[in-house]
Structures are given as structure tokens and as C-alpha cells.
Amino acid sequence: MIKISNLSKSFGKLEVLKNINLSVDEKEVVVLIGASGSGKSTLLRCLNFLEVAERGDIIIDSEKTDLAKTNLNKVREKVGMVFQHFNLFPHKTVIENITEAPIFVRKETKEAASSKAMALLKKVGLEDKANYYPEQLSGGQKQRVAIARALAMEPKVMLFDEPTSALDPELVGEVLQVMKDLARDGMTMVIVTHEMGFAKEVADRVIMLADGNIIEEGHPNDIFVNPIHERTKRFLNQIL
Amino acid sequence: MIFLENIISIFSEHGIAFLKASWMTIAITAISLLFAMVIGLIFAGFKISTSKILNWIADIYIGIIRGTPLIVQIMFLYYGLANIVNLDSFTAGALALGVHTGAYIAEIFRGAVQSIDRGQMEAARSLGMPYSLAMRRIIFPQAFKRAIPSLANQFIIGLKDSSLVAYIAVTDLYNTALSVQGENYMPFETYFVVGVYYLIIVLIFTWVANRIEKKMDVSKPKEGIIV
Ligand SMILES: Nc1ncnc2c1ncn2[C@@H]1O[C@H](COP(=O)(O)OP(=O)(O)OP(=O)(O)O)[C@@H](O)[C@H]1O
Ligand SMILES: [Mg+2]
To answer: What angle do helix axes B89-115 and B70-82 make, rounded to 10 degrees?
Structure first.
């Protein structure tokens, strides 16, 4: 589903990603871990071209992206993204947030987009909040709307960048539950998170990033129980 | 109480003339502001653009407008353009006021757009929205709402600045005051009266602007749902 080869990205002199190679299979759930500043967000953002890497190839859904030729908007339609701070559109209601891109990008009719949005809201347990504005929702509710909004574009892959980090502890569970449901339904997902319990339960593979390199990867049972790399051990000790 | 008597006599003698002049003031202000909004939008776009040339054009325009007095701009346009095209004083005045206010409105729009959280554009783009669509549907509506108080303020300044077109013979409020006090030799009372007219127009406008701002406040759920 995703194949990244030799990806490098710098911000000025700072080399944030160093020759990353990574493949994600269809229906696979990959969790990215690593210390702050290790390049997790940057890697995710390269996958939907919010950041443009200097070097390397990205193949998504068996289409190679060529910056000169590919329509990035088309690629982004296939790659849903959920942000730490939700980034809901505050001037639009919940349902308008969800139907905006389907109507204006996918050219769906208002009726079709609305009924799909209602189905998605039901899936994330918020069908009674369709006409609310984002500011009237709790953090957990906002994030569930953001997930529904991304799903409305019927993406092939979903990227999550610390989706529960901005939430009060008691609201984390409801968002993780929606993500678990998604994983069970067979969505391909790349997730940056510090929720190790969730990672253990849902991830097919855990990838440890340090200073822009993948230093270790494997099944959660292996990585969490028997980390090989010294830095992984230290990181897990800090977090668990 | 001679002052009060004089005021009343000015009102009864020239009230209608001032009312007509109010209309002229409102008309030239409205047309110039409409024009200024269009210019402001275009040049705000230039300033936000990644094109160095467009940034530069906008900087020059805004720099010149900010750096020279409005009365000079009015005279410059009126007499300058008179060499090229035949402009009546109303058109020249509206044009000059529009070009002037447009520079300030461009800055208001630019500031408002740049004040919108980066995450909004990123979220829109991540949904596959092209830049222009994201700008139009997501960023600008939020920026516009945020700009309303500053715009209203700029509109009031525009209204008051319009008094300067009296000097190119537009028969607006201020021009009327000039001729009335020339006739009756009561400058103090006459300027008092014209001040009242301006004040009333500004108060009405402020009231309307507040209403619009309240209307655009999206803090209530739609369709009467109670939180
Ligand atoms: N737009 C940018 N301009 C300059 N430097 C940046 C930019 N974005 C990220 N960086 C730098 O790149 C490095 C990696 O950032 P990134 O956000 O990918 O880390 P992260 O692993 O997601 O960290 P965190 O856990 O804190 O979110 C950091 O040193 C950061 O300061
Ligand atoms: Mg990050």
C-alpha cells in the first residue's frame, strides 16, 4: 500500500529524516514511536506531502509520486490524516466539516455526502451532534469528528499524529476505541502514539525512530518485551 | 442661548441641504469602500502570495498610500487623471478614496488571513482540497469574520476622510458646511451642525456593523438544538 525508499528530509541544516525505507502492507497497522524530535511527525507529513522530502520515492496505492507531474491533491484524497489538535473547521458544523471535501473535492451531491456523513457519525458515536459547532464538543468528540471527516474521503490509508496527546486522560479511551474499530475493519493505518497499551493491542508492527533513522522494528510483542537497541530500551523505560 | 437659536435657524434654513449633502457623503463613501474592498482583496492576495514580484508590487502600493497625505492623493488623481481622461469630481473623489482605503483594507485582510491557525490550511489540504478552494472555503471565511471589527473601524475612517473631497468640489456634507458658513458668518454653529450629521451617520453605521458581527457569531448550534 505504501512504499517509501531512501527518503530524506531536512529543515535548513537540520537533517530530520535520513534515508528512510519503509513499506506498509494493505490492512497493516503500523505504530511509529520515538523520542520528541526524532522525526515521527515529519515522516507522516511526508506521506501526504504536507512536507516535501528532498530525496527519495514514495509509492502510495501502487502509484509513484512525481512532484513535477503528479497531482498531489489526488494523492491526498487517498491519504486521510488526523492531527493532534483536531484542526476542525470552527465556522462549520460537525456535518459540514465532514461533507465539505466530499462535496467540493469529490463532487458528491449534498444528499449523498450528508447520508454518508451521518453513517460515519454513527460509527464514531456522534450522530446526535451533527448540527453542533466544534467549540461545543469535548476534545474526544472533536477528534472523533476529525476521524469521520478524514474517512468521508474514503481514503486508502489513514495517518494519525498523536491523536490522543491533546486529550484529557478520561477522553483518550473513546478515541482509541474508534481507531481499534477502524483497524478491525481493515483500514491501513500509520499511527504516531505514546499509548503503548493500544499499540500492543492493535499494531501489526512497531517502528522505532531515532534521529531520523529507523533503528528497530518488529511485532509489538518482540519490541516491547525484548527490545534489542539500547535507545529503544531507554525510550520504553521512560514511557511505560 | 444665542448659540441654540443659531443652531435652530441653521437647521431650519439648511436642514434639507445638509440632508442632501449627507446622501452625497454616504454615496461617495459607499462606492469608494466597495472599490476599496476589491482592491484590498487583490492586494492582500498579492502580499500573501509566494511570488516575490507580487509581494513587491503590493509593498510599493501600500507604502505610497501610507506615506502620503490623502488630500495629496485626491488632488493628484483629480488633476493628474484630468490630463488623460475626463473625470467628474465625484468619480475622481470616489476613486481616490477607494485607492486610499484599499491599501489599509489589504493590510487588514492580510493580517486576518495570517492569523488563522496553520492547522486549518493543513487539514483542508490533507482532505485533497486545492489551495484556492481551501483559501476560499476554509481560511477566508474565518479571516473575514475576524476582520470585521477592523473593517468597520476602517469604514468609519473612510466616511470621515470623505470630507476631503469637498476640496475638489464634490457637494458633500463638509462642502455644504463650507458654503453655509460663508453665507451666514456663523462658522462655529455651522461646523457644530455638520458634526452632528457626521456623528449620526457614524452611529447608525456602527449599530449596523455590530448587528452583522453578532449575526456572524457561530457559537449557537443550528436548528434550535439546545446544548
Ligand atoms: N517546519 C519546520 N521547520 C524547521 N524545523 C522543523 C520543522 N518541523 C519540524 N522541525 C524539526 O524537525 C525535527 C523533527 O520534528 P518532528 O516534528 O518530526 O518530531 P516528532 O518526532 O514528531 O516530535 P514530537 O514527539 O515532539 O512530536 C525537530 O527537531 C523539529 O524541531
Ligand atoms: Mg510530532
So the answer is: 130
d(CA A34, CA B3): 81
| Rounded mean pLDDT for each run of 10 residues along chain B, 227 residues in total | 90 93 97 98 96 97 97 93 85 96 98 97 97 96 94 96 94 94 92 96 94 73 43
C-alpha cell at A153: 474521503
> Which grid coordinates are listed for A178?
474508534
Q: Measuring from each residue's beta carbon to the nearest atom of ligand 1, which residues come in under 6 Å? A: A 11, 14, 16, 34, 36-42
In the stretch 108-167 of chain A, residues with CB closer than 8 A to chain B read 131-133, 135-136, 146, 149-150, 153
Output the 3-class SS for B44-113: HHHHHCCCHHHHHHHHHHHHHHHHCCHHHHHHHHHHHHHCCCCCCHHHHHHHHHHHHHHHHHHHHHHHHH
Name the residue among A73, A83, A153 with its Cβ closest to that of B119: A83
* Strands of the A14-24 sheet, one edge to the other: A14-24, A2-11, A55-60, A63-64
Among A148, A98, A105, smallest CA distance to B130 is for A105
Long-range (24+ apart) CB contacts under 8 A made by A45-48 are A45/A161, A46/A4, A46/A7, A46/A9, A46/A17, A47/A2, A47/A4, A47/A79, A47/A157, A47/A159, A47/A190, A48/A75, A48/A76, A48/A79, A48/A81, A48/A159, A48/B126
- Summarize the confidence of residues A213-222 as an average pLDDT: 94
Largest Cα separation within chain B, whole Å, is 72
Tell me, what's the ipTM?
0.94
